[in-house]
Amino acid sequence: MAVKRVTIKMIAQEAGVSPATVSRVVNNKRNVRPEVAERVREAIRKLDYHTNEVARGLVRGTVDTFGVVVPDISNTFFSRICKAIQNTVMPTGAAVFLHNTDGILNRERQIIKELASKLIAGIFLVAPRMPATEIRTLSEELGVYPVVVDARVENCRLAAVWVDNVTAFIEASEHLISKGHKRIGFIAGPLAVANSKDRLDGYRIALRNHGIKEDTSLIYESDFTIEGGYKTAKEMFRKKNPPTAVLCSNDLMAIGVLSYLHKEGVKVPSEVSIVGCDDIDVASSLFPPLTTVSQPIYELGVTAAQMMLQYTSTNEVPHNSILHAKLIIRNSTSNVQQRKSESETRLAEQLSHNAQVQEERDNR
Amino acid sequence: MAVKRVTIKMIAQEAGVSPATVSRVVNNKRNVRPEVAERVREAIRKLDYHTNEVARGLVRGTVDTFGVVVPDISNTFFSRICKAIQNTVMPTGAAVFLHNTDGILNRERQIIKELASKLIAGIFLVAPRMPATEIRTLSEELGVYPVVVDARVENCRLAAVWVDNVTAFIEASEHLISKGHKRIGFIAGPLAVANSKDRLDGYRIALRNHGIKEDTSLIYESDFTIEGGYKTAKEMFRKKNPPTAVLCSNDLMAIGVLSYLHKEGVKVPSEVSIVGCDDIDVASSLFPPLTTVSQPIYELGVTAAQMMLQYTSTNEVPHNSILHAKLIIRNSTSNVQQRKSESETRLAEQLSHNAQVQEERDNR
DNA sequence: TCTCTCCTTGAAAACGCTTTCCAAAATAGC
DNA sequence: GCTATTTTGGAAAGCGTTTTCAAGGAGAGA
């Protein structure tokens, strides 16, 4: 689609000055007489000139654009971060490239290189599996400013912003403990990502602090999806002596658990309490509204963007930012129901019976 | 962050050929002796050379990048479209700029111009309020290929892909009618966007086809959000003679309605049936699982991307694509409960009583 | 052996901008 | 009124590619 674009030369001719002068006006350099500047601006307006960002990028060696690399942009968590970055960075005139990686390490590496070849200034990385040292060497080699989002990266001369998940999950666990729960199930995200591990650690610390012995049969690893939560709940509640409360590493899995328990006719919160994490949009509109660890998602993005802007302008690695999550207590948690040993058994039996029936049905 | 980048000249020197030859090898042009080509590739590997996309963009006059412009990237609907575009376009080596507009027309215009100044090849536009003619003239002026996503644009020599919302909503309405519902509430999205209007039209057509007289007091305009749905439900059910079913223009509003009815103790679906639209992730995990018009969201993005690739390579406006939605029947709809006239009144009264109590509580 | 192709290769000119270097003009200092 | 300094604006040199054009070489047909 060839189109004659207005160039700086045409403006120069129109205003009766040289291209150099037009450039100076466009970039607000001093050393241009006000009346000349005005004549140039007039010409720009008249011909509807817009600087060719690519040509500018070539001479400057960098382009006013950032890359945002996330595992899955269709996940609300990440898309909210993107939005925050967008909104914060846009007023400076910068644009953002968006890239999806599905969390695949090699694709992340690939994408970082591709972005560098487009001369972007900086890169926001939500890549929980990529080692900090690699991020640093890679970005140094490529001449790109990195800001790591939502991953705890300490002592690494690397700009990063993350949430204190350990404390958050201590608090969430203590909320359940204070309601009398002792058998608290935990559904972790993939333990290869540090955040998942931190959340599990918070849960463990809280248990220990309150003299509750950890029961590894109550701890499951899943994948942050609704289906994952559903399946895990199925396993968890089919066993004897099921938990009276379930703490999930994110809301989607909590929704899966909720959905499973609904289906089995188990009442939430009266029979089982549930706590999620993230506080996504629908969390407050579920039935019952979900008690959850509210992550400052938007703030995560805004902070990252601010760090980036500071980074690129001062050329100094900004200090890390640690944000805090907040427990939002809604109606999916309540005091533990005093189950008699026999009724506990009954619940487990009923559930495993249901499951069996279901399986038979599936097999047909 | 200044970094000495490997240039084509360095490769040329290393391989003992001219830059032109290196360029030919990089771009897989014929007319290079295999042994020379191999020597060049060797040098590229050795020095880890990556083409400077900006320089290439300058000479070619365009850059292998597309812009994606959406109202709100944190909305699952749009982020799924983005993901689909991404995934479809990535294998060709293209990247995408992402831009949020909050649906503000002027910002959309602004962004389109900014993107053009970056010499992008094409632009995916989810901008339901922008007139088709404007899109066409703007993109012609700027030399950018436009593909309009999720908006019905006919007879305009403009590439577009959309969903047949009228038929979809006829079907959804008929589902309710077949269950005996006659008083069906409708919550529309902003009627300034064509899709909202089409959905309402579908509802009206279905009603007319089945001899049900339209009752304008059952039709509301809202804003596609959970809160909007909640508030609208509140209004709707406070009136005398409330509907026995509610058809919502999207799932988020349906969730709002569901949430309101839950709070008021109204049983879904036995007392009131609900139908949503989109089939977002959580729709199947709600309580009850939501009957909804499943939009082929991902397909919308994939199709748009394919059209774009065809468009840019052939330089011919591709034919429009019309996709079809599918009604997914879950458990939020059931046969209408035979309400006696008195009990109808009772429901309304109860609700309006609840509302009053609530308001008093709020005022304190 | 000589001419005519065809293929391979290199030199050089763009692409549109920024920036450095200079010269001219304007101002200041004495 | 003359020199020293600052302002102003033009010319030109890149930035790293691609692409055009022409030259050189190899093979084929006479």
Task: Write a short abstract of this structure.
2 copies of one chain form a homodimer. The first copy, chain A, has 13 helices and 12 strands. Chain A has helices at residues 8-15, 19-26, 34-47, 53-60, 76-89, 105-117, 132-142, 165-178, 194-209, 226-238, 251-264, 297-314, 341-363, and strands spanning 63-70, 95-100, 120-125, 145-149, 159-163, 184-188, 219-221, 245-248, 273-278, 291-294, 321-323, 326-328.
What report would you give on this structure?
Two copies of one chain form a homodimer. Chain A is α/β, with parallel strands linked by helices and 364 residues long. In chain A, 48% of the residues lie in helices and 16% in strands. Chain A has three domains: 8-51, 434 Repressor (Amino-terminal Domain), CATH 1.10.260.40; 63-163 and 298-324, Response regulator (Rossmann fold); 165-293 and 327-363, Response regulator (Rossmann fold), CATH 3.40.50. In chain A, helix 11 links the parallel strand 8 and strand 9 (273-278). The longest helix of chain A is centred in the C-terminal third of the chain and has 23 residues, at 341-363. The interface between A and B is large, with 65 and 64 residues. Chain B binds a DNA duplex (30 and 30 nucleotides) through helix 2 and helix 4.
